[in-house]
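Let us practice reading a record.
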Amino acid sequence: MARPKASPEQRAVVRRSIQSAAAELYRSEGLSAISARAVATRAGVSVGTIYSYFGDLTGLMQSLWTGRIAQLEDEFRALAAQHPDPLERIAALLRAYLEFGVNQAVLYRNALMFVRPTALETPDKQPLSEFAFPSLLHMAVAEGQSSGAIIDGDIASLVQVLWSGVHGALALPVNMDRLDLTDAETMTESMVSALIRAIVRN
């Protein structure tokens, strides 16, 4: 006799228990401890259940912070709408990104400083257009080029330069904590000013 199909509420409970197990393992033992078997054992489910609910381990790990990142993306969109001038909009977005990295350091490190262990499969590449921060930068750079305020050049490359600058300001003091580097919060204005100077047409 076939097992009754789980209700949406029952599925939600199982999903949360798997996520909780993965989060506990991550906090207590680090990313290297995350395996389908370890999470399944802690959650009291089969390995197949994890793949059924999340597709793969990458999907499981990303699900731990997707909701909070979606909220952040809404904040970026609202902020961009407040700045008609493309250069001011870019500066505001860069500052907001740095503030997010400083004020929500744990979420930032988990979601955006994720170093994929070799044991995990490399995911398919997702287009940047699916994410608010690079998309908003792309639109602002395009507008700035059209108005003559921003230097010519490949827009995607300029966006990556801007993003790399703020990401590096956040990541470098963490990854190189043995060095006497200035913290990201102190670097915010210097980094934003330097990046804006790099793209402004003289």
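A brief commentary: The chain has ten helices and no strands.
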